[in-house]
Specification:
- The protein has helices at about 1-20, 445-450, and strands spanning about 30-35, 40, 70-75, 80-85, 90, 95-100, 105-110, 125-130, 135-145, 175-180, 185-190, 195, 205, 210, 215, 245-250, 255-260, 265, 270, 275, 280-285, 290-300, 310-315, 320-325, 355-360, 370-375, 380, 395, 400-410, 415-420, 440-445.
- By secondary structure, the chain is mainly β.
- The model is unreliable at about 1-20 (pLDDT under 50).
- The chain is built from two helices and 31 strands.
- Strands 16, 17, 20, 21 and 22 form a five-stranded antiparallel beta sheet that branches. Strands 1-31-30-29 form a four-stranded antiparallel beta sheet, with no helix packed on it.
Length: about 450
């Protein structure tokens, strides 16, 4: 009996140690910081319809505003200092990143102004950037606009009646991008869909999503329609704005791993998908060569209900980095008084902003990935004073509402890049009165990348 008790205690201790290891925090040191100013606007292409020369005309619900710069952006009710409509297209928030080496990055601009209804004049595009982490500046070296002249998109788009058929934020919400074999694969949040485009941004294919052999659709999917009578049901299993957020690729480019931002709805339990009492997000697997879903998936367990992920890229064949975050923004030094709101203070502070290392293998297909450890983005050490803005007593917090970019830059030396999505002009997470810039930081995280 005593031996059984000892064995049980040892097993319990081992299990507890494993759980604690899964939550182990590792340090992060700032080694570079650069930014692109919030108010970075580019012209629409010369052959774009006149409607796309000015963006943000529909950000006021129920109204169309034509005059540029007349509607102040708000973040949690606070004026951000930038107003829509914009004379041109804002480069604005980056929702996905891939390191290309030599300080160059492929980044994807978000859908426009945050929703399908308010973004029909926001063009969709991705960029190539050159980042100067010493000087603190970002150069945009190329921009590629998405378009569908061959009518590969299976539904009516905003610019249906044009020859070039430029895509907008009313068509898709692009959140992640992966270059493979001269093509670009984009994960969309509306459908959710997978989109393949060529090097010019021309759509070649749009793939529907299936999970466990069944369609996965959000209320923004073209096949989900409003019922004809109030007593009739409408069915979808992906919550709005919770489609694909991150998407990794295998090191050999054979597979894509799109990751949903929110849990799937389980119609049988009438609740979100859970494993062991935690809400989970699906990591799906898509065979690039066969152009079909493999049917395999993994579960990413959220530490708390209501959290979301921001980006997802592989470290090697079995481990990866995922951003896990809350919806707060701002730092405690500029917090509002308890229970209060104001134009010059933060009322819902950033608390949970992490980069998590996970392990996903053949052995845990259909199960939860293993969380190896994490870094806390709210306490990035800055002993060498490399921060260009936002540092507090030798620490650079990254207190943004949405942090949607992470990738490995230099595995041998333990360097990663992290970036925010500034939701222009609707986020002010560094200064409560000022629209956020697009920031990229280089972090030394050797211990996290080496952790087993």
């Amino acid at each position: 009996m005593r031996l059984r008790l000892v064995a049980a205690l040892l097993l319990s201790s081992t299990m507890l140690a494993g759980a604690q290891d899964a939550q182990k925090e590792f340090p992060a040191k700032l080694v570079g910081h650069t930014l692109l100013p919030a108010n970075t606007i580019i012209p629409a292409p010369a052959d774009a319809p006149a409607d796309l020369k000015v963006s943000g005309k529909f950000t006021t619900p129920g109204k169309r505003i034509e005059q540029a710069g007349t509607v102040m952006g708000l973040s949690g009710g606070r004026p951000t200092g930038l107003s829509t409509p914009f004379a041109g297209q804002p480069v604005q928030g980056f929702s996905g990143i891939r390191s290309l080496g030599n300080g160059e990055f492929l980044v994807l601009t978000d859908n426009g102004f945050g929703a399908k209804a308010n973004s029909p004049d926001a063009m969709l595009f991705f960029h190539r950037l050159k980042a100067d982490f010493e000087g603190g500046k970002i150069e945009r070296t190329a921009t590629t606009f998405l378009h569908d002249p061959d009518k590969k998109v299976p539904f009516r788009i905003a610019n249906e009646g044009t020859d070039k058929r430029y895509l907008t934020g009313a068509d898709f919400d692009p959140e992640s991008i992966q270059p493979i074999g001269g093509k670009y694969w984009i994960g969309d949040e509306f459908g959710p869909y997978l989109i393949r485009v060529d090097q010019t941004g021309k759509v070649e294919a749009v793939f529907e999503t299936t999970v466990d052999g069944k369609p996965a659709r959000s209320p923004d999917h073209y096949a989900v329609t409003t019922p004809g009578a109030p007593n009739l049901p409408v069915e979808f299993n992906v919550r709005r704005s919770k489609g694909y957020e991150g998407m990794a690729q295998s090191p050999d480019g054979r597979f894509l791993y799109p990751l949903l931002e929110g849990p799937l709805w389980n119609a049988e339990t009438k609740g979100n998908e859970e494993v062991d009492g935690k809400e989970v997000l699906r990591i799906l697997e898509f065979d690039v060569q066969a152009e079909k879903w493999t049917g395999r998936s993994w579960f990413f367990p959220l530490e708390q209900k209501g959290l979301a992920i921001g980006d997802f890229n592989m470290i090697d064949a079995t481990t990866a980095l995922i951003i896990e975050r809350d919806n707060g923004e701002g730092t405690a030094d500029r917090a509002c008084a308890a229970g209060q709101k104001g134009s010059d203070c933060f009322h819902d502070l950033a608390k949970f902003k992490r980069i998590v290392k996970i392990e996903m293998t053949d052995a845990n297909v259909g199960k939860s990935v293993r969380k190896v450890g994490y870094i806390d983005l709210m306490k990035i050490a800055d002993p060498d004073r490399r921060a260009k803005q936002g540092a507090i007593d030798g620490v650079l917090p990254f207190p943004f509402f949405t942090i949607e970019n992470v990738d490995v830059v230099d595995l041998a030396n333990g360097i990663i890049v992290v970036g925010n999505d500034n939701n222009l002009p609707f986020s002010s997470s560094r200064d409560p009165k000022k629209a956020d810039d697009n920031e990229l930081v280089l972090l030394s995280v050797k211990e996290l990348l080496a952790a087993k």
